[in-house]
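This protein record is not my work; I was only asked to verify it. Where you disagree with what is written, explain briefly why. This is what I was given:
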Amino acid sequence: MIGKKVHAGDFKILNIVESLLNPHYGLTAATINLSCNTKDKIADCFISFKGTGDLTITSPERLPESSEKFIPLKTDNGDVQVSRIDGYRILYNNSQSAALVNLKVELSETKSYDTDQKGILDNLKYLISQSQNLTTTEPIEIEKNGYKIFGLNRNTTDSKSSTLGIYIMFPGNNITVYFYFNNLDRESRNYNDLQEFITVRDKFFDEYTKHIKNCKN
């Protein structure tokens, strides 16, 4: 992993994290695809965001072709299978070279995208129901530049969890974007409390969604 080593958060039910925040991504620089308007590959627009100024990009890591194409996720109605035929991971480091944001961009099968979205959101709800010390008991909904983002957040930065928040966005074209915000130790943070973290989080959401909205071929 490039930058500060991070581990999956200690949310008690870690289906999203264990399935998607995993070591199965290659460590070589990714081959970037052009155009945001394709449904059979991950476009450059989703993985070319350079950062916010406070956070800087590292080299994209691509999911190996040998990786599992379906991921099991738990929901209140039992396990579901979510397709994942390609993926990239990018870390965004702060000025202390600590990885605050772990960004995942995943590609679903075209025929599975609608059911994948439902399964991922149902898993998020299940994860929230099984967790403690969160800011809400339902998924958080944030809208930025026409894109909806769903997620969960710890209610304090003093939590022993290594993950402060997990967020999901479905921008279309069979793409799912995952945002993992790592709970850094005090010496490595670029925030002092939960409100300052939320400001950093929302700035990242705003600038990332603005980038993909304005991205040209």
User: Anything to note?
Assistant: Confidence is low (pLDDT under 50) at residues 1-15, 17-23, 27-35. Strands lie at 56-57, 61-62, 70-75, 78-83, 86-93, 99-107, 140-144, 147-153, 163-172, 175-182.
